[in-house]
Amino acid sequence: MNILVTGCAGFIGSNFVYYYLRKHSERKIIGLDNLTYAGNIDNLSGLTEEERKRFTFVKGDICDPELVERIFNEQDIDGVINFAAESHVDRSIHDPQIFLKTNVLGTQVLLDAAKKHWRSGNDWKCIDVTKDESEKSRSNSDNLPSRKPAEFLQISTDEVYGALGPTGYFTEKMPLDPHSPYSASKASADLIVKAYYDTYGLPVNITRCSNNYGPYQFPEKLIPLMINNALNHKPLPVYGDGRQIRDWLYVEDHCRAIDLVFEDGKSGEIYNIGGHNERENIYIVERIIEILRKKTGDSEINESLIKHVTDRLGHDKRYGIDPTKITQELGWKPKFMFDEGIEITIDWYLSNKEWMQSVISGEYLDFYNKNYKI
Hints:
Strand content: 15-25%
Number of helices: 14
CATH class: Alpha Beta
């Protein structure tokens, strides 16, 4: 199988590349990334020599139909996992246009290419998928490969649902009610993906996840921003009173869920992915301070660094995911609770200060300018 993974050099995309190549030793990934500020090819520098043989990188924009068409022609793409997106809410408030272009029109370009290359008459391209060991043990079949349609998997966000009150959870049946240009663009993309299933029968799935954290996350996001600022004794900006609640998901758990949906998800279905790790933002910041002070012995890393700032426009108060559907249908459960995942994450950033420095300083962009001529 040849899988097109867009946004492969971003935070979740790069973590997924590692996970997928290591789990599926016979498959290949064609990674497409435009290497904007949040895409960092160094995120994939840890691939082994064997994994590199099964990974092909293409620099380019999902909004470029000629490029996407060429990739489908040359690489015989069997499936698409679309991570590529502008994803930072604050940036979407200041510049909505790029979010609409990438997240909506870029998704449509990918869908058109998949529809063109996978459809023959009324039939869709099928791919051989060897049954995993657990399926073999349940089956009376003779280990012959099973067949499934080529797959388009759209990676979305719980923010498309809007905000929750103090109780309740987002389910897949809830109406979409996005409140920022970012979440509105992702909701729009989800609707287009669903329309290609309803109208053309294109085999698709959509996953909507809660807040991710872990290695390689760009330091405009809450957790890596707080880690970096605290280590450098800089203010830790907290929106409003910091009582906004998010459901936190360690990125490896997210990668496992994506893999399960890609392999076994029912066509046309949406799957929510959440970690049952709801925490207030202020708790996250205080916990990071506590862990960093303990690990570094630096007494200047303390709560005096916290600085409450004017709240974000349209800031949703609470998100909470109900993952019952993916648990019952596909057997997924998170392995990492927040207190374990945040320690692993902080350890990674402490061990990869050069990566953080390169990102903060913009050195990685200088490299791209010389080598990819952005």
